[in-house]
Every structure is written in structure tokens, then in C-alpha cells.
Design goal:
By secondary structure, this protein is of the alpha/beta class. The protein has helices at 32-42, 72-83, 103-112, 156-165, 175-181, 201-215, and strands spanning 3-9, 26-27, 30-31, 48-53, 90-95, 118-124, 129-133, 135-140, 146-148, 152-155, 186-190. Bound molecules: cytidine-5'-triphosphate and magnesium ion.
Length: 216
């Protein structure tokens, strides 16, 4: 049973702004992406970690694979295709923009794969939801609605199949959704607030505060 973690770090970080893509920003003395790389590599059940960067960022991170694509989906697909036929049984697919990965979440995900081909960490929604277009048009129930995090875990063959069959024209923001839509059941496990993605400057400030507190 070979378990590989893929970290996608080939985005441009446009919403956070700044000169450098967010995965390379210094967080507590090392590039942001190194935090999740260390957490995943340190887990006893994970055999190998592959970091995917854009082709022009090859020299930024030691041992990174410069095979990032134009979209997140393409970056993941390129990594999966590179791993195909190499005996990998299980993959964890993770956003570099989520630096703090609790080991307990990894265990929950991998345990869930005994029952289903996919597993995703989720948290309940606490804000009120509504649909609208300049004015509210209708309320949206929070019943059975969750927010999805990464890492997401899959039996390798299932997620490769999902990516190969996914329509080229259709966008996808995560792999669990692609697996589900292509017929591979995805188990929900409890996520963690510290897994939340760094998307805007305030998210980065929160991560910096967490690091500073941990170092005290
Ligand atoms: N990602 C990637 N390849 C892409 C786009 C995104 O590997 N072509 C990665 C990002 O590096 C990030 C993760 O997917 O770790 C989640 O994406 P997101 O938070 O949207 O990051 P960015 O696309 O970099 O940010 P933005 O959308 O604000 O430009
Ligand atoms: Mg993006």
C-alpha cells in the first residue's frame, strides 16, 4: 500500500495580491508551502510528498515538480498522470494554501478509505445562506450543506478515472466534487478550522498570528 500526498502550489494567488504567489510567502521562517509539506511528510502512513509548482517556478522549492497547469484541476491531473502505473494505491490531494494539517485529520481520511473510494474533511456552515443578484431572491437551507477542505483522500484509480472522464469545458474547484460527479462515493470526515485556506490578506495575518503564538 503506497500512499502519496500531492500538494498543488502552482496558483498565482491573485486574490491575496502581492508580488509573490502566496505559497512562497515567508511564514515563520520558511515558504508557506513548506508547512504542509513537513506535516504530510512527517505522518507515518504517508510514503512520499510531491509538490507541484508552475514550470517557471521550478527553482523556488527543492525537489518540486514543475508540472503545474493553467487551472488547479490541470495541476492535479498532471501530477496524477505522472504517478500513473507506478504502483500508488492511495493519494492525498492538498492545497499549498492550507499550511496547517492536523495529523488526526489525515488518519480520519485514510481510515474512511476502508469504506469508500474517497474522503473529504468538512465543517458545518455557520453563516446564514441565501441566493440573490443585487437583492435577495431566496433563502438557502443549511441542512446537509458543508464546506469542504483539503487534504482530500482517494483510492488512486478512482480519482485518476474522475480526472480522465471530467469534461474539458467544465470547471472544478476540488477533487471530491469531481469524484462524486463521476460516480465515486466520497465519505465526509470532520475537518478542522486550522485547515482553512489562505485566500485573502486577512487569512495570512491569522496564519502569522498562529505561528507567532506557537513559537512563544
Ligand atoms: N493551484 C495550482 N494550479 C493552478 C491554480 C491553483 O496548483 N493553476 C493551487 C494553488 O497554488 C493553491 C490551491 O490550488 O494552493 C488552491 O487554489 P487557490 O486558493 O485558488 O490559489 P490561487 O489560484 O493561487 O489563488 P487565486 O485564485 O486568488 O489566484
Ligand atoms: Mg485560484
Amino acid at each position: 500500500d503506497t500512499i502519496v500526498a500531492i500538494i498543488v502550489a502552482a496558483g498565482k494567488g491573485e486574490r491575496i495580491g502581492g508580488a509573490d504567489p502566496k505559497q512562497f510567502i515567508d511564514l515563520g521562517g520558511c515558504p508557506l508551502v513548506e508547512h504542509s509539506r513537513m506535516a504530510l511528510a512527517a505522518h507515518s502512513r504517508i510514503d512520499r510528498v510531491v509538490v507541484v509548482v508552475a514550470p517557471d517556478q521550478a527553482d523556488r522549492i527543492p525537489d518540486a515538480r514543475p508540472i503545474g497547469g493553467a487551472t488547479r484541476r490541470e495541476s492535479v491531473r498532471n501530477a496524477l498522470e505522472e504517478l500513473a502505473d507506478s504502483g500508488v494505491s492511495t493519494v492525498l490531494i492538498h492545497d499549498a494554501a492550507r499550511p496547517f494539517v492536523p495529523p488526526a485529520v489525515i488518519d480520519r481520511l485514510l481510515d474512511a478509505l476502508d469504506a469508500q473510494p474517497g474522503a473529504v474533511p468538512v465543517l458545518p456552515i455557520t453563516d446564514t445562506l441565501a441566493r440573490g443578484d443585487s437583492v435577495l431572491t431566496e433563502g438557502v437551507s443549511r441542512d446537509h450543506v458543508f464546506r469542504l477542505q483539503t487534504p482530500q483522500a482517494f483510492r488512486f484509480d478512482a480519482i485518476l478515472d474522475a480526472h480522465r472522464r471530467w469534461p474539458a469545458t467544465e470547471d472544478a474547484t476540488d477533487d471530491a466534487g469531481m469524484a462524486q460527479r463521476t460516480g465515486h462515493d466520497v465519505m465526509m470526515v470532520e475537518g478542522s478550522p486550522i485547515l482553512d485556506k489562505i485566500t485573502y490578506p486577512a487569512d495570512l495575518a491569522l496564519a502569522e498570528a498562529r505561528i507567532a503564538q506557537a513559537m512563544e
